[in-house]
Design a protein that fits this description.
The protein has 214 residues and is mainly α. Helix content is 78%, strand content 0%.
Length: 214
């Protein structure tokens, strides 16, 4: 999931990449929902994603087709990750499942990224950025997601993640100098509204029992 989204961001604008990737969890939420009101919130969030995609597309010089494919693949793996993480959180106590998953992921990506990682030998300062990326893009968010998935249905969790492309748009505005056009503001508003609607509509979150060490 992370590998493909990084490859997508390398080729297409940040907002577009995140909006395309988010199609995965949105489709998952629509498939898992049992209430019509949840489908309405999913539709509203989907409109927000579409607006973000349009805004990014019209401001970009070109949209690399391979980058779009990478974004779609990242979205598909994101949906699968949500399902797998929910089951892992139920079966494995604490963060044991996440720890094992991170080790497996590291082994898988080492052959792919080894050639780029050797730059650390020449520039040891890159280790600080690598450590920050590991903590902020994997360890901390995944740990919090495991905790959330133990208390929320997968479809609700998917829609709540609609805040992620909104945050990506804000990062684009503040750090990358991307203008906040009318479409961007409307998209962020729809995404936040959808997230609030799902959260308030669920009431108290469902708490699954913590699995025993046995």
């Amino acid at each position: 999931m992370n590998g493909f989204i990084y490859a997508a961001i390398q080729r297409i604008p940040l907002g577009t990449a995140v909006a395309i990737e988010f199609l995965g969890p949105l489709v998952l939420a629509a498939c898992l929902s049992r209430r019509s009101r949840d489908l309405l919130w999913v539709a509203l969030a989907f409109i927000g994603m579409a607006l973000l995609g349009v805004e990014s597309a019209v401001t970009a010089a070109s949209l690399d087709p391979l980058g779009v494919v990478f974004g779609l693949l990242a979205g598909a793996f994101w949906a699968l990750y949500i399902l797998a993480s929910a089951e892992t959180g139920k079966q494995v106590p604490g963060l044991g499942g996440l720890s094992a998953a991170m080790i497996i992921a590291a082994v898988v990506v080492v052959p792919i990224g080894a050639s780029g990682a050797v730059r650390v030998v020449e520039e040891p300062g890159l280790l600080l950025f690598a450590l920050a990326a590991a903590l902020l893009s994997s360890v901390l968010p995944y740990s919090l997601e495991i905790a959330a998935l133990r208390r929320l249905p997968s479809d609700v969790f998917s829609v709540l993640l609609s805040l992620e492309p909104a945050i990506a748009a804000v990062v684009g505005w503040v750090l990358l100098g991307q203008g906040a056009g009318v479409l961007s503001i409307a998209a962020v508003s729809l995404v936040v509204l959808a997230s609030m609607g799902v959260t308030l509509g669920q009431g108290c979150p469902r708490a699954d029992p913590e699995p025993s060490a046995a």
